[in-house]
Amino acid sequence: MSLSFDPQALPPIGVDHHLPPVRPEALAIEMLRQRFQAPPVWQPEIEAERPFIERPPAHASVLVPLVQRDELTVLFTRRTAHLTDHPGQISFPGGRAEPEDANAVATALREAQEEIGLAPAYVDVLGQLPTYTTGTSFIVTPVVGLVRPGFTLQADPFEVAEVFEVPLAFLMDPANHRWHEADFGGRRRAFLSMPWTGPDAAGQAQQYFVWGATAAMVRNFYRFLAA
Question: I want to staple 81 with a disulfide (CB 3.0 to 4.6 A). Which of 88, 95, 166, 221 is the partner?
Answer without folding.
Answer: 88
